[in-house]
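User: Show me an example of a complex going from sequences to structure tokens.

Assistant: Sure. Here are the input components:
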Amino acid sequence: MHTKTENVRLKEKREWIFELYIAGQSPRSLQAIANLKRICEKSLKKNYDLHVIDVSENPSLARIKQIIALPTIIRVNPKPARKVVGDLSEIDKAKLILEI
Amino acid sequence: MKNSKNGTSILSKAATGITGFDEITGGGLPSGRPTLIFGGPGCGKTLFSLQFIAHGALHEGENGVIISFEESPEELMINASSVGLDLQTLINQKKIAVDFIKFDPHELNEAGTYNLEGLFLRLEAVVAEVNAKRVAIDTLESLFTVFSRRDIIRAEISRLFRWLKERNLTTIVTGEVGPNTSSNSTRYGLEEYISDCVIYLDNRVENQITTRRLRIVKYRGSSHGTNEYPFLISDFGINVLPVTSIGLDYEVSKERISTGIPDLDEMLGGKGVFRGSTILISGTAGTGKSTMGAYFVNAACERKEKALFISFEESPYQIMRNMTSIGLNLKRFVDKGLLKIVAFRPTMFGLEMHLINIIHLIRQENPSVVVLDPINSFLTDVREHDVKLMLMRLTDFIKSKNITGMMLSLTGGGEHTERTNVAISSIVDTWIILRDVEQSGERNRGLYILKSRGHKHSNQIREFKLSDKGLKLIEVYRGLAGVLTGSARIAQEAKEELEQLEYKQEIERLLNKLENRRRTLENQIEIIKANFDAETKEIELQIEQLKHRQSVLEERKKMIGKMRS
């Protein structure tokens, strides 16, 4: 089970910060989490933070972040922010967009 | 209204509050169902949605949410305030909630599959926030421009409509018209998802004049007009102009009012026209139509009633000046506020804009009589049918207000007066025709009443003259030779005068003869009398002489007697 945020803290501030917006524990949500983790572990080692946010628990976040498609991944750091929608099953495309 | 023949299920409707629209749909949009409204840019679909939501919140006790893909809440508020809707207050009162879905297609990338659960969550949240019964999604088709996976978007839109129907939300979704505008379909085929109600808004430019039209493409379970209904966006929002919104059930008056021309009132059964009826006066150029209109408003003002004269040809000043030349002083009524003269250029706006302007003006002034001079200025653009519809709507409107209307119509010289106005004849109650009567090589002005519903009227063609003393109907020649005008009338009258004279002379002759006879007789009597007098005198003289002789003889006798004694 995931809590609202799942991060691995090694340093005070990571170089890579991701927000992953999902809606409940659907297979697609789990797929997205797994895919993002896999990409990050492989390319960024431990140098990343991953916040998993379930908007079904807090729909106003979807409004604030202007999200309608789920899953949505926002690369908060490094700037500028990048946004990608989908379960990241197209891994190469995902890496390209997130510049990992 | 009816859904099935046995009437077990009645399709309930959600009123939109849009003037005219609720009438043509028998109550509004299908309640608890989605409706698609589509059209080109600027066709008014956002405004339609706004009015629908605001009306629900203000008047139907149905709160609403607006999901806007295109306009920010600020833009929506400006849009709404342009038609007098205060969106901010409704938002503050928690009657309306707005969720602005903002996208930058450039910053959005896709990798793998997704769904639009975020949209559903947001929609659910705003619906719950105000306990909404109505939803407007403007423009749903934006989804296709933002996301590249058509298959996903299509599936999600289907899901959205199911979701909305399950929650019994009366929804408007808007769509853009496809690139082939003549196909009348949305760009991404949104109408495929909506089986209940599809409305098309059109904004076309003809002869440099924009005309907005609304057509109900589909309305399942409800009877609806298949016409294209012109509509306008005015200060009060969208106004759809149904062909006959009022129907034919207005109250009619038995009161009769003067046309301002006593002779004409006389022809109309002696009392003029019914109050609340519509009079058409048609005629060729210069036959005195405007003059008749002026007399009509003049008479109303003299009765202390308010009158409205709408001119499409002349300026108010021009009309007042021209009418002074026939002895009508309209200015005094204008100064008193009884008469209002308004001039519009026919080409200034589209037909519908004219109609709404006129209706607005009538509502504002609340006159008892209205004159439109001339109606066929609108015919400059060839859409005669549209003009008819417009006049029908206007006639319905003024009748419903018990206003007596006079429409003046210019007919071309060579045309058949009766035919050119056939289009509108059915909607008028009294039709007076002014025409040139050509006879014996002359043109004279003739007036006749082609029809006048509900009262008897003269069938004569009356000749009339315009002078500085005004409009005068001339006493007609009504003889065995028919109704005659102009010199034919004069000739006939002269002929009759001659006959009259002959009789008179004959009588005089006979009288003279009698007189002469009497005089002759009297002369003879005089002569006889004179002769008699003369004879009398002669005889008297003889008698005198004889008496003298007698006395002389007596004297002599006495003298002889003296001498002998």
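The lines above are the inputs; the final block is the predicted structure for all two components together. Chain A is about 30% helix and 25% strand.
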